[in-house]
Amino acid sequence: MNPIILITGSTSGIGKATAERFAKAGYDLILTGRRNDRLETLKKQLQDTYRNRVLTLCFDVRSQAEVEKNLGHLPNDWKNIAVLVNNAGLAVGLNSVQDGIVDDWERMMDTNVKGLLYVSRTIAPLMIQNGHGHIVNIGSIAGKQVYPNGAAYCASKHAVDAISQGLRMDLVTHGIRVTQVCPGAVETEFSVVRFKGDKDRADTVYKGFEPLTADDIADAIFYCVNLPKHVCINDLTIMPTAQASATVFHKNP
Is residue 249, in this structure, part of any structural domain at all? Predict the structure, then answer.
């Protein structure tokens, strides 16, 4: 049997690139997301190209009931999950706290923090039962530093940092590895979502320098997961060469 990887938020960006990278390496995949048409398109692409088994589950990680319904009752031949990638997440809006939009805060906290907890709570016991596993949480440079007008998003990613550290402690006696991968600027749909569909504004974020790609992050995840079993990279921060911090860039005119 091929090893099984579960990837949340797999319909675009880092999640999609990770699915492609692990499918190429012979993993079977459980792919989750909110857009069923994209899930089914990706499933067909991966099966046609690599002949892997692919199970798609369309639900929103913000709902504990949906997480439990979809991941808490997996078929027996899908329960031996080797890798969980908690990738589902988003930034919405770029506002000061005093001008913040509460609905934006709710979406970020419910997805980035509670969704990660719900999925981990459901899958970690399976890994303990199976006697092996590796959980990869997709954090952010925003979980290490704070920048103006990003307090809520940064808070959500600081929470991912804390959860990753705590989860590593909670699971260490079971031999389950936990890795947090914290990217800087990656050119995906991230900024389009943050600016609520304003593609022109989103494009300006990546002007004047070469950002990371989703494939770069997928390669890093694959590297961490495929190290010898006695090696665990707890925390990995990755930024473009042209980015020195959350706010310091070298951009060409």
Answer: no
Which CATH number does the domain housing residue 72 bear? 3.40.50.720
The pLDDT tens digits for 13-29 are 999 999 999 999 999 99
Q: Quote the pTM value.
A: 0.97
Is the predicted pLDDT of residue 1 greater than 90, yes or no? Answer: no
Instruction: Give the structural domain span for 49.
Output: 4-238
**Does the active-site annotation cover 206?**
no
Give residue 89's pLDDT band: very low, low, confident or very high (50, 70, 90).
Answer: very high
Radius of gyration of the chain (CA): 18
Helix ranges (H only) for the chain are: 13-24, 36-50, 64-71, 102-108, 116-130, 151-171, 190-194, 199-204, 214-225
Considering 147, 153, 206, 223, which one is annotated as catalytic?
153
